[in-house]
Write a structure and sequence with these properties.
With 261 residues, the protein is α/β, with parallel strands linked by helices. The protein contains 13 helices and 7 strands. The protein has helices at residues 4-16, 21-31, 40-44, 49-52, 62-68, 71-81, 94-99, 112-115, 122-133, 146-162, 207-223, 230-248, 253-256; strands spanning 32-33, 85-87, 103-107, 137-139, 171-176, 188-191, 196-200. Helix 2 (21-31) crosses helix 6 and helix 11 crosses helix 12 (230-248).
């Protein structure tokens, strides 16, 4: 190495070739932030793809060696941080990751891209979740039983009234919604593209669950925020208060008569 930085890049290349889980556990403890094990290596190592370049034997990028043999990296990651840990690429996804049943962990920024070749990241988790939710299927009204239809009509009446002075919701539908992740089920969904609300059929079993889900999804519409973000929580509180006030004023009496709590 001609410079000290060259040394840390070379050490990055070395780690890309390691496949012993016990050693990788120690490595991940060093590059985690905050570090579990404090070491110069954890602060200075460089595993950036183009800095490390290609392995002269295989011709592959060193980062690809990690990607092609992910199992020991995944095992070491899970032993250190648990089954639900993902790599944080942006704190904007923290609340969504939590909502999906996972937990974000920060690693050294010059290791992040290479490690993401083997270990699940927050952005990958969210992308997979969005792909799953695109498979949601609307259930036509004429296929609903009387109870589900009554609760859906109640939800639609509430949306019309609550959004009367706001940007309108395009529609409210009963739907079969796939789980957003392998950790949680999905009670409802809001599409930013079509501005429609989808309520899972199981939530329409009771008026209470229907309204809870509806408030959560309307808050996405009005706040333009992700799950568990402060702005989303604030809008849920405001909308819930409006629902109580409008219900007390008798706005939904015609729909509540057929509701089952």
């Amino acid at each position: 190495p001609k410079t000290e930085n060259d040394l840390w890049v070379d050490i990055g290349r070395l780690w890309c070739c390691v496949d012993k889980v016990e050693l990788l556990e120690s490595f991940l403890q060093m590059v985690h932030f905050p570090p579990v094990v404090v070491a110069d290596e954890g602060r200075n190592i460089n595993m950036e793809k183009y800095a490390m370049g290609s392995d002269p034997v295989s011709g592959l990028f060193y980062s690809q060696l990690v990607e092609q043999k992910p199992e020991p990296w995944q095992a070491a990651w899970k032993k250190n941080f648990g089954e639900n840990a993902v790599i944080r690429t942006s704190d904007r996804w923290d609340s969504t990751v939590k909502h999906l049943g996972y937990e974000s962990h920060t690693v050294h920024w010059l290791c992040q891209e290479t490690l993401a070749g083997a270990i699940l990241t927050d952005s990958m988790l969210v992308k997979t979740s969005q792909q799953r939710l695109r498979e949601a299927k609307i259930i036509p009204d004429d296929r609903l039983d009387a109870t589900h239809r009554a609760h859906l009509e109640l939800a639609r009446a509430m949306v019309r009234r609550i959004t009367a002075r706001r940007q309108k919701v395009s529609g409210v539908h009963a739907a079969i919604i796939p789980p957003a992740s392998d950790r949680v089920r999905t009670a409802g969904m809001y599409s930013r593209t079509t501005e429609e609300i989808y309520i899972a059929l199981g939530q329409l079993d009771s008026g209470r669950k229907t309204i809870d889900t509806l408030i959560h999804e309307i808050a996405h519409h009005t706040s333009n925020a992700e799950d568990l973000e402060e702005r989303h929580a604030e809008h849920m509180t405001k909308i819930a208060a409006e629902v109580v006030e409008l219900t007390h004023a008798g706005e939904f009496d015609d729909f509540l008569r057929n509701a089952i709590w």
